[in-house]
Amino acid sequence: xxxxxxxxxxxxxxxxxxxxxxxxxxxxxxxxxxxxxxxxxxxxxxxxxxxxxxxxxxxxxxxxxxxxxxxxxxxxxxxxxxxxxxxxxxxxxxxxxxxxxxxxxxxxxxxxxxxxxxxxxxxxxxxxxxxxxxxxxxxxxxxxxxxxxxxxxxxxxxxxxxxxxxxxxxxxxxxxxxxxxxxxxxxxxxxxxxxxxxxxxxxxxxxxxxxxxxxxxxxxxxxxxxxxxxxxxxx
Length: 235
Prior knowledge:
This protein has 7 helices and 11 strands. It is α/β, with parallel strands linked by helices and 235 residues long.
């Protein structure tokens, strides 16, 4: 049975790495002593080791050990043997490219569908959707495919920002970009604001945190859903 947390971000303003969600993760990872970390998204171009060390420090607070997938000779076997998996943020295109090149798309899908707990933040959440076409990131590399893990039946837009009516910026809003996406693609999109996450438990998909999420469906006016709303019918 799938057990997934899809979080908008790893860090909310004014707090440390994963600090806002650590209490939730303590329960989420209660049956795992160790967590396999996938650092491929590499925020700011930092090394896999540097990124993994940041994650190790955060999870030590809840007494979990962390190993980076890059430390294993066979990453597919590492996923198959993992007690739990965490994919961090950074660039979604870089992350997706590395998942394909290391033959990990099917490996992660299989592990999660077999019940391995999966946590994603930012880019690691983007890949939980059907495709990565609604990421905010620049396509700095060209992955073999934009198709993602399809762990939920829609696309995601982590770090969703509402239009600022007082801003003089004349560029596109997130809502405008998602509307453009729907000009060519049918998939619904969930806009996750900072500090919000989805908890997938089997067939249930529930919005968590204190903020609403914005839902975009092709041909419909975007609308808000409250925390604790069930989203499993969104397809």
